[in-house]
Write a structure and sequence with these properties.
Helix 1 runs parallel beside helix 7. By secondary structure, the protein is α/β, with parallel strands linked by helices. The longest helix is centred in the middle third of the chain and has 13 residues. The protein starts with a strand and ends in a 6-residue tail after the last helix. It is built from seven helices and 22 strands. It is elongated, with a radius of gyration of 21 Å. Helices cover 23% and strands 29% of the residues.
Length: 310
């Protein structure tokens, strides 16, 4: 019987899983469905070099010819709206379905949003489309306010201050990067950003964003002060994309729960990347780890230690 591996998402995990499946002897159909208009691409540069002017032709993980040579079909602009384990099929947009024998969810995560921040000059950064919009807006901006002192916020701050913008980072905790690095490293990065002209304010609580006619003008703070801004970037974390997992009735916690081989609670359904939650010797209670290396590792083990391997 001909098998078909359907991979939902255009991420590192999607590309790596498809390539690893082929490398481990999966010789049947492999189809990647991505709702974006580009082949799977590098995302870390979006908040760094891309904002400084790097051409997006350097972003794709693999060339179109690579996928053709390895018989991996990549369908662009193909948004999967639902999945059904009874019929073993996914719904693409409104008028197309695709059956599968094996399904991999590499659907990533979405930016955590800030209620009341629905203005045309407020930006989040998760995709190439987001980065392109921000890059265009930043070219004409003088004052930039960034809510969140994590990696995304600080990387954007570093890029935009090099372009002559006045950048203010607003962080609610007592220091930046508190969730991801040790205090000594946080202090180092704080000093480095301030030395380069970024104003970093910690222990800040946002009251609301003030705007007029759909355009944000300033951020009003709990202490009664305000920060003016031509554009605002929000980087306050992410939430896993779980809609398809819910439709399949999978075990979802702080992400789609997978075992050590990236298997979900449903037979023949796998998951990898930022959307997953798993246990490890270093996190016995479970963790959702947002990193390129984790996406690559989970995808590789899925293809080598499961039925996806020959």
């Amino acid at each position: 019987m001909t098998k078909r591996l359907v991979i939902v998402g255009g991420s590192y995990a999607a590309s790596e899983l498809a390539v690893s499946a082929r490398a481990n002897g999966y010789d049947d159909e492999v189809v990647i469905l991505t709702d974006e208009g580009e082949l799977p691409y590098h995302r870390p540069p979006l908040s760094k070099a891309y904002l400084l002017g790097t051409d997006d032709t350097a972003l794709p993980l693999k060339s179109e010819q690579f996928y053709i040579d390895h018989r991996i079909e990549v369908r662009l602009n193909s948004r999967v709206t639902s999945a059904d384990k009874r019929s073993m099929s996914v719904q693409i947009a409104e008028d197309d379905t695709l059956s599968f024998t094996d399904l991999a969810l590499t659907v990533g995560a979405s930016a955590r949003t800030l209620p009341g921040a629905e203005f045309s000059n407020v930006f989040y950064l998760r995709s190439l489309r987001d980065a392109s919009r921000l890059k265009k807006a930043a070219a004409g901006a003088r004052q930039v306010a960034i809510i969140g002192g994590g990696f995304i916020g600080l990387e954007v701050a570093s890029a935009l201050v090099q372009q002559g913008c006045q950048v203010t980072v607003l962080e609610s905790c007592g220091n930046i990067l508190t969730r991801v690095v040790a205090p000594v490293m946080a202090d180092f990065f704080l000093s480095a950003h301030r030395a380069r002209g970024v104003e970093v304010r910690t222990r800040i609580q946002i009251a609301r964003i003030l705007g007029d006619h759909g355009v944000a003008k300033a951020i009003f703070l709990e202490d009664g002060s305000s920060v003016g801004a031509d554009i605002i970037v929000i980087g306050i974390g992410s939430v896993p994309n779980r809609e398809l997992a819910d439709a399949l009735n999978l075990d979802v916690r702080n992400g789609i729960f997978v075992d050590s081989a990236s298997r979900t609670s449903c037979e023949n359904v796998y998951a990898a990347g930022d959307c997953t939650f798993f246990r490890s010797p270093f996190a016995p209670s479970g963790i959702r780890l947002e990193s390129v290396q984790n996406a690559v590792d989970l995808s590789g083990v899925s293809a080598s230690e499961t039925d996806l391997a020959a």
